[in-house]
Amino acid sequence: MYTDNTSNIGNxxxxxxxxxxxxxxxxxxxxxxxxxxxxxxxxSAITLMHKHDIDAIITDxxxxxxDGMVLFHYVKQHFSEIPVIFLTxxxxxxxxxxxxxxxxxYYFIKPPDYMKLKGILARAVEQRQLRKEVRSLxxxxxxxxxxxxxxxxxxxxxxxxxxxxSVKDSSSSVLIRxxxxxxxxxxxxxxxxxxxKKTTPFVDINCAAVPRDLLESELFGYEKGAFTGAFSxxxxxxxxxxxGTLFLDEISxxxxxxxxxxxxxxxxxxxxxxxxxxxxxxxxxxxxSANKDIxxxxxxxxxxxxxxxxINVIEIALPPLRERKDDLPLLVTxxxxxxxxxxxxxxxxxxxxxxxxxxxxxxGNVRQLRxxxxxAVVLASGQTLTIRDLPNEILSTYNHKPDNNxxxxxxxxxxxxxxxxxxxxxxxxxxxxxxxxxxxxxxYKRLRxxxxxxxx
Length: 456
Ligand SMILES: Nc1ncnc2c1ncn2[C@@H]1O[C@H](COP(=O)(O)OP(=O)(O)OP(=O)(O)O)[C@@H](O)[C@H]1O
Ligand SMILES: [Mg+2]
Known about the structure:
By secondary structure, the chain is an alpha/beta fold. The chain has helices at residues 19-31, 42-51, 68-78, 93-101, 114-146, 155-167, 184-193, 212-220, 237-240, 256-268, 294-299, 305-311, 328-343, 351-359, 365-379, 392-399, 404-424, 429-436, 440-449, and strands at residues 10-15, 34-39, 56-60, 62-63, 66-67, 84-88, 106-109, 174-177, 202-206, 221-222, 234-235, 245-249, 270-271, 280-281, 285-290, 314-317, 348-349, 384-385. It folds into 4 domains: 10-141, Response regulator (Rossmann fold, 3-Layer(aba) Sandwich), CATH 3.40.50.2300; 155-319, Rossmann fold; 323-399, Helicase, Ruva Protein, domain 3 (Orthogonal Bundle), CATH 1.10.8; 411-449, Arc Repressor Mutant, subunit A. Helix 18 packs across helix 19. It binds adenosine-5'-triphosphate (ATP) and magnesium ion. Magnesium ion binds next to helix 7.
């Protein structure tokens, strides 16, 4: 991740024991857009490296305050991503050349050609920033692989991750339940793509999104001429999924007649395409999802109980985000990382913004959070994501919440009113008190209570 800040193209540390050499080089390079840190010797160079995010180092070789080669070895050991460029007097070319064979970036004989130095430095900075980005992407990937891309450290989520791990290779049917945006599809994919059969087909169909009359032909497939419009033969999803996984998303939306047909397929492990009576053997692992309370659907006879028992051999119930708020900072951090890399920004979340995110009810669960972070990262102009970057849907519920937070904002409004009055009356407090319609004494009391400094 690097800063999208056009005025600074990179942080450069210059090490030289001659103050004049430092001064000249600093002036030239800051003029070219680099942010310069300078050090007269080893110790201060090392301190600066630990304190700032240095992108490249330019160092002299022979210095009174330490040897540039020793510094180079220190950098190699502790900051291996930072490229080192040597500036050396004619007499030390041999050591500079040997440093290049050990991984130094470049060397110049003093006095350098500044245009060339600038070009080489820009390449060094770019190399460092790319290395940093690669490292950060690798970390994200490693975390995602470990957790099957599912972020969560909350107790319930950890149990779910364990459950996924223990059932991924079984052929039992799985039913994933949870409100919208809780990650049902993500879990279905994790079950398949972390299993031994990850290279077999993963076929999904959303029972709520496909029109009823099309759903049957989508699932079963058809022969040419099976119905008006069946101009050619088509393989159904059951067949496509054979050998792999079939994910029936939102199965509670399946109408009763299709439920009966699905049950038959599951019992017989065979299908017939529409318009054909040839039986085709199929074998897939079934994963279903439901965001409705499917047991209630069974009780109200909108969902067949025998089908329910067949699809619900293993049940995974995903908790809504509001019931696992302890995961919120982690989710926010991960999504921030992801979108900062994509947008090439470096942003952190302010504590106020995090507090508001934590307090929100999250009806759209993780999907909603992810979208909000994406939007905020895209819109944020500074290095901090603040309340102003959050959408109204979140802020309005926050302001109307009848708890400490709205008490606090009431207090803030009062402070603002007092400040405005003092400002408008140019510091004359008696006038300000009159303007707010309270006595001078009461005004001073409010000032103390609200701890507004009287010189505002
Ligand atoms: N635990 C999680 N970690 C990381 N990302 C998540 C997590 N849960 C959900 N998401 C992300 O949130 C979005 C919505 O997830 P998904 O589509 O799996 O939800 P869903 O339960 O299937 O929702 P719906 O019922 O609306 O279909 C996706 O972008 C997904 O990657
Ligand atoms: Mg879904």
